[in-house]
Write a structure and sequence with these properties.
- There is one protein chain.
- The protein is α/β, with parallel strands linked by helices.
- It has 3 domains: about 1-100, no CATH class; about 160-240, Beta Barrel (OB fold (Dihydrolipoamide Acetyltransferase, E2P)); about 265-515, Purple Acid Phosphatase, chain A, domain 2 (4-Layer Sandwich).
- The chain is built from 12 helices and 20 strands.
- It has a 7-stranded mixed beta sheet with strand order 3-4-14-15-16-18-17, covered by helices on one side. It has a 6-stranded mixed beta sheet with strand order 13-12-11-10-19-20, with no helix packed on it. The protein has a 5-stranded mixed barrel with strand order 5-6-7-9-8.
- The longest helix has 26 residues, at about 1-25.
- It is globular.
- The N and C termini lie far apart (about 80 Å).
């Protein structure tokens, strides 16, 4: 009997889903008496909540998708959510899908977290980061993630003057006029004649778009990025031929950066990889001694008091790649962190130090990554701040975005980009206003209910690591930094012909934005 009940529970939702797809279309072919019998049989297999949802939408002449009926029926405030969505519709709709749902009226900006003041300078303030993972792997989480991405990025695209009147429904394009649309790239096909066919998707559906790359512009399109285009429909009405440059999320005009009131120094390093057999221990010890004023080298740039930011991969970790154990000098990850704490605790308390995780650290590989666990944190001093990856920091009033940079592995596929040009890849992230634009590539992304990798506000300083290549450059008012690594060339890098840039730090005067590259290879 128990087995029979289990089969019935599985059968009913499946029956409901399949039947609902053709329910209205088939119903219109029946006469009055047949409709009554059909409705009775159909509703018999639905739960009370599902019947309520369908009845509510029927009164408003809306046909729901099966996923929407299931989601609303199981949601604690389902009908409230449904009413909020329906009342927000700006145009008539016949079909309503789960992607149309407006989960929240307003997403509140996170409250900044001010760290304990340990010196006579402003404390580190965490402006924006993930606080707690809400990822459950369910379909609704993926839908929520991509809705949040699309809603935010499409608003930014619409800020461009040429996109302010873009059509919000790609299923309602004009055959005779210029059509401006905004969508997320769902497919890319490149042809030998220089044309590229892109499938753009918004909440109303999909449309094929034909692009022509010009001699002075690389399209460099990525899956899942959000763009705006303008063009005319083909005679068949199934392809939009674009006749103007594509529009990406708006960076805004060149602006003056925020500056600290005093000439505080912020120092940026990344990819220490302590525990690796190729960790540059001698140079690292020299760096720690320099922070204490014991090395006669550019002492005016010692951030005392000031800030030190370590942008991920502080240790080499374990199981980060096949056969890694043979490359380690310390094979236990907790021992690696213990050794790290010994050296970092030698840093003067007046230097507020921030450590964020990377893909080698003892946190989940999926981004966004939560801060390092308490088991690690408890061994460090009060001048340490442990953040998530990515994180937006306020350093004495200067907005500093820190991202370890795993998604740079995805961007090397773009034309004219490579691992030894991190500045080029960082520009592409800023253009797209997203730190990991591609879903399902080399960068694993967690299906959180909101997208923590969006670049909501343009920072004053943008820092990455990961690729072990050094770079400092200003772009559109943003100071971009990749400090390199503290690890010499690995066997894999040798095989790939890649030469890292080890043992460097970048110092920034937060008042004047003067920079100094500090090289400890001496």
């Amino acid at each position: 009997m128990r087995g029979v009940q289990q089969k019935k529970i599985l059968f009913i939702p499946f029956f409901s889903v399949c039947f609902l797809l053709k329910y209205n279309r088939f119903r219109y072919t029946l006469n009055f008496y047949q409709k009554g019998l059909f409705d009775t049989l159909f509703l018999y297999f639905l739960s009370v909540k599902e019947k309520e949802v369908i009845a509510w939408l029927s009164e408003r002449k809306l046909m729901p998708s099966p996923e929407l009926v299931s989601h609303i029926s199981n949601h604690p405030d389902g009908l409230i959510l449904l009413e909020r969505t329906v009342t927000s519709l700006t145009e008539p709709k016949l079909f309503l899908g789960i992607s149309d749902l407006i989960e929240e009226e307003n997403v509140e900006a996170p409250k900044p977290i001010e760290r304990k003041k340990v010196a006579e300078i402003p404390p580190v303030i965490i402006e924006r980061q993930i606080q707690k993972s809400m990822s459950d792997g369910k379909l609704e989480s993926y839908v929520s993630l991509f809705n949040d991405r699309f809603n935010n990025l499409s608003k930014l695209v619409r800020r461009d003057p040429s996109m302010r009147d873009a059509i919000r429904d790609t299923s309602n394009l004009s055959p005779d006029e210029e059509n401006k649309i905004i969508g997320m790239i769902a497919d890319i096909q490149t042809f030998n004649n220089g044309r590229t066919r892109v499938t753009l998707e918004d909440k109303s559906g999909r449309i094929n778009v034909m692009l022509q790359e010009s001699s002075d512009e690389n399209l460099n399109l990525l899956m899942d990025e959000v763009i705006g285009v303008s063009g005319k429909l083909s005679r068949q009405g199934n392809v939009l031929f674009v006749n103007s440059p594509i529009i990406r999320p708006h960076l805004g005009r060149y602006r003056e950066v925020s500056r600290a009131e005093e000439p505080h120094i912020a120092l940026f390093i990344s990819d220490v990889h302590l525990g690796s057999g190729t960790f540059q221990e001698r140079e690292w010890d020299k760096f720690i001694s320099w922070l204490n004023g014991d090395v006669d080298y550019h002492k005016e740039w010692i951030p005392n008091p000031g800030y030190l930011i370590i942008a991920g991969d502080a240790v080499d970790g374990i199981d980060s790649y096949p056969g890694q154990e043979a490359d380690l000098s310390i094979t236990d990850v907790w021992e690696q962190y213990a050794e790290l704490s010994k050296s970092v605790n030698r840093i003067p308390n007046e230097i507020q130090t921030v450590i964020m995780p990377g893909n080698h650290d003892a946190v989940r590989l999926m981004e966004p990554q939560l801060p390092l666990p308490d088991k690690v944190v408890k061994n460090f001093g009060d001048n340490l701040t442990f953040t998530a990856n990515p994180v937006l920091l306020d350093l004495a009033g200067v907005k500093t975005m820190c991202y370890h940079g795993k998604s740079l592995d995805d961007l090397v596929s773009l034309r004219d980009l490579s691992y030894d040009n991190p500045m080029g890849m960082m520009k592409e992230l800023l253009k797209r206003r997203h730190l990991a634009p591609i879903y399902g590539a080399k960068t694993p992304l967690a299906p959180e209910k909101q997208d923590y990798l969006l670049i909501h506000d343009i920072p004053d300083i943008f820092v990455t690591g990961h690729v072990h290549s050094f770079g400092v450059e200003k772009y559109n008012g943003v100071l971009m930094i990749n400090p390199g690594t503290w690890q010499s060339q690995t066997d894999y890098q040798k095989m790939m012909g890649f030469q890292p840039d080890p043992c460097r730090a970048v110092a920034v005067n937060l008042q004047t934005f003067e920079t100094q590259v500090l090289d400890f290879n001496f």
